[in-house]
Amino acid sequence: MMPIDRERSDADMNSLKRTKLAYSILSIVLIVIGIYLIIRPQTAMLTVCRVLGVVLMFYGIIRLLGYFSHDMYQLAFQFDLAMGIFSLVAGCIFLFRTEWIAELIPAFIGVIVLIDAVFKIQTSLDAKRFGISKWWLILILAVIAGALGAMLLVIPLKVVEFVMVLIGINLVIDGVLNFWVVHDTVRMIDSL
Predict the structure, then answer these.
(1) Where, by residue number, does the polypeptide cross the bilayer (predicted)?
(2) Measuring CA to CA, how many Å separate 72 from each of 21, 40, 128, 190?
């Protein structure tokens, strides 16, 4: 019986390592897209919608993989089933209803970032309970991300270049926050 449990443990460890790597790559992609939008805010909204559609679908898949991984604390991935499904649906909408979503993109991204920020605030408080020393950094980044997400809900679309810069800033902060959370809260039994 012991060899089977050890094999399962090794498989779980490898699955968790792959999920952490995928989260890290996704976080870097969000940061790169965000920086690009900050530097080139005149980028066409339809192009942004299509790229974000692909990213959201990838994000949804990664979030679902995270939910089904075997993280010891279950902090970083605790809301990933809901966010994974939501992101997959959002990605499909961005890809297949591009013209329609282009008008709603600031509010849509604002809602996604705001929801994710609220979940990350809870994650930071749970991390504090588990004794993770940098829980406060997750909290600060989540509050900043939430505030910027809320700004996207109230800024008029007429100021397109400003909206694109704000979307870029949101993506950079969300990417940094996701990277930090996955590397600071995900624990494997052998790493303790």
Answers:
(1) 21-39, 45-65, 77-98, 104-123, 135-156, 162-182
(2) 17, 41, 15, 10
